[in-house]
Amino acid sequence: MLDLKFIRENPDLVRQAIANKNEADKLNELLALDGRRRDIIGEVEALKHQKNVASENVAKTKKAGGDASDAILALRAVSDKAQALDESLRQVEEQILQLQLRIPNIPNSDVPVGDESANQELRYWGERPSLAFKPAPHWELGETLGIYDGAAGANVSGSGFFVLKGAGAKMQRALVSFMLDRHTAHGYIEHRLPYLVTARTMQGTGQLPKLAEDMYHIEADDLYLIPTAEVPLTNLSAGAIIPADLLPQKAVAYTPCFRRESGAHGKDTRGMLRVHQFDKVELVKVVEPEHSYDELELLLADAEAILQALKLPYRVKLLATGDLSFAAAKCYDLEVYSAGVDTWLEVSSCSNFVDFQARRMNLRARPKGGGKPFFPHTLNGSGLALPRTMIAIWENYQTAKGSIIIPEVLVPYMGGQTEIA
RNA sequence: GGAGAGGUGGCCGAGCGGCCGAAGGCAGCUGCCUGCUAAGCAGUUGGCGGGGAAACUCGCCCCCGGGUUCGAAUCCCGGCCUCUCCGCCA
Length: 421
Known about the structure:
Blueprint lengths: L3 H6 L1 H10 L6 H37 L5 H32 L19 E6 L12 H8 L2 E2 H8 L5 E2 L1 H20 L3 E3 L4 E2 L1 H7 L11 E2 L4 E3 L4 H5 L6 E3 L5 E10 L18 E11 L4 H18 L4 E5 L11 E9 L4 E10 L3 H6 L2 E3 L10 E9 H11 L7 E2 L13 E2 L1
Helix pairs in contact: 3-4
The protein binds one RNA strand through helix 3 and helix 4.
């Protein structure tokens, strides 16, 4: 979230960001509450000071063996009044927090303003495959080869779930291992994470309160299934003050991701394009504020390296303000071209959240020589989302006879297998 | 799931309901001393918020949230977490 003081001092900037991100504008309400909050604080603290002084006098009187019953009687009134004020302060602060949690991050100045039509396609990499036959979509390929079973997924869990079998399942595992190996070679520390997290954790990275409808919630224990490893991975040190010389922290984790996709019914329903559960390898960085935009470029390059190694054609998009997520200040999307469905599939979003998430989760860092703790910047990016990466492999590497050539870098991870036929 | 123990500052560890934001120790920092290091001596070292240009000042913080009280680290209730034992279990 944004610093209350910053909001107070830069209302126009904040209002513009809200408009650019198409969020509800509750700024005036927030500012009014903030004024009330400070009024109450002034009052309640004066009262408490009075109370503290008088209370000390009671102690002294009693110690000296005197009678303090009059003073005590007078104090009771002051004490009650302070308590009542404290209660209204608590209420105002809760209201402020609820509003504050719904104010989006401010887009960085180099982010194009506008809706998704203002997104900038920055560059293309690789050649789209030129197939001498009409490429089949992955669900046809997969079902024919016996490596994908959509019906079985629906059978056990309903629509939006799928099953991989044989070489399909193995390729998914191969991709996970390959990605983890690449990223750890680039200095990311591998993590295994909980898939269920608390509401507080969801709030830390910005999923709650806004996206409550998009997540699976376990009622009995009040836990949420993670929609991305970003959530547990970024929150690992939430609430703590970490030594700044531990920065930058680079972490990678493979987890399944669970999404209700409540707003997306009827969209991309075939195959593995949009599903309720999918695997993803995620990169997270916690860095010094002054380096975060450089780190974003490096993060993007680390994600791109996977697509390049797999020889999959892709493009890089810089998202416009209207397409930017609630918590992000700047974001690049990586989209892979997939021949069967003949579209660009988003396989990674690389974002810089600056101090927005750190402030929400109260994650701070202590400067090397000591001094005031500061909010580090957090970043994340998929490296990469699995089903769509695999879709692109199946569809781009398919042959006229219906088999799939396995990308070279994956062959060692597939036990030497070079083709799925 | 059952029974017990415990959560205090960067760490260890004390703490009768009233100068306790908290003894003492360690670690850190600053002086002094000293060929260097160590030791010794003295001082110093938390977070958040309000006011102030600033020096500074006020309030809150002893796991969290309530309660009792003029006054709570200290008493009461609830929760969370950690540890030990038993049971169950991949």
